[in-house]
Amino acid sequence: MKPTPSDRRALAAFMAPAIIVMVIFFILPIIYVLVVSCLKWNGISAPQAVGVENFVKLLKNSTFQRSLKNNVIWALVAGFIQVPLAMVMAIILSRKPRGWKFSSCRQSVDSLRGKNGNFRKSSHFLHRLYRERGLPSPLALSPCESDLFCMGLSTV
């Protein structure tokens, strides 16, 4: 089915705000950075065009080389270790093994609790809401004293 002119106008009307925002906040800043990176300019004096000289200096800088190497390592770790592990965990939990509800509940509770077991400020409202109604707060019911114990218990 071929789109009618009114369909095209509606599509343009819906896409226009997103395109305008993308151009203003994404495309134009990238162009500005590329232009300014080819200048010798301290922000006060008149800029001088130096071409790719700034990039050559950057690539020769040992700190930049080390930073680039570290970023590449982190990208590889995330791409080849973290993502597959997350996928394996998702597959395991999608099959609902024994203890999956406890594991899911524990992760929800831990996201609301601090590292030392205290409530985070964002969870005080929920805790107070339960307490005012005479109910035990689910945030205080975590049986786990240590993450290692919980991880082992949740796989049982």
Question: What does the secondary structure layout of this molecule look like, with pairings?
Answer:
Layout: H1 5-36, E1 39-40, E2 48-49, H2 53-60, H3 62-94, H4 100-112, H5 124-132, H6 147-154
Antiparallel strand pairs: 1-2
What does this structure look like?
The protein has helices spanning 5-36, 53-60, 62-94, 100-112, 124-132, 147-154; strands at residues 39-40, 48-49. It is mainly alpha-helical and 156 residues long. A two-stranded antiparallel ribbon has the order 1-2. The N and C termini lie far apart (55 Å). Residues 141-156 have low confidence and may be disordered.
The helicity comes to: 55-70%
Structural class of the helix and strand makeup?
mainly alpha
**Cα-atom radius of gyration:** 27 Å
For the residues shown, what is the average pLDDT? 78
- Largest sheet descriptor: 2 strands, antiparallel
Number of discrete helical segments: 6
Give the SSE string: HEEHHHHH
Contiguous uncertain segments of 5+ residues: 141-156
**Strands across the major sheet, in which order?**
1-2
Global geometry = extended
Q: Total number of β-strand segments?
A: 2
How much strand content do the residues show? under 5%
First-to-last CA distance: 55 Å
